Amino acid sequence: MDHKVAEKTGTAHNVRYVDDMVLFDSSKRRLHKALEFIEAEVKATKQTVKDNWQVFILSKRPLDFLGFKFHTNKTTIRKSIMLRISRKARTIARAAYASIRNAHAMVSYVGYIVNSDSQRFYEKWVRPFVNIAQLKGVIADEDRKQHQACVAV
């Protein structure tokens, strides 16, 4: 369906993740035509498009998608995710040792930071509390133990 939408509607860019679809174009008219086309295609499969779809100007309001906020000139992390990251960093700092679960979570959160423009957030709220290389070492040690246990059986 993605190829059909791009081909038939002529929208500049299309992004889809599972059941979310985002269309970018300089023309609101073209976006509304694309929505009509998508509704017709979806209706043929006896499904519907949710009523809360929106057309808005990206320069005036960021697009909140997949945990990121996409602005015209930068990409930031959603505020609720930033809070979770900073709380997890402080939790790890307070603990006597980093559990495998916390290590996995923090290394996963670093993926958000790396793929966004959040370097200052990292320097202020994550780096003083955790050592990412050490957490990766915790994960590697645990994986090595599990692998050796599997081989021994």
From TrEMBL:
What the entry lists under InterPro entries is as follows: DNA/RNA_pol_sf (IPR043502)
Entry protein name:
Reverse transcriptase domain-containing protein
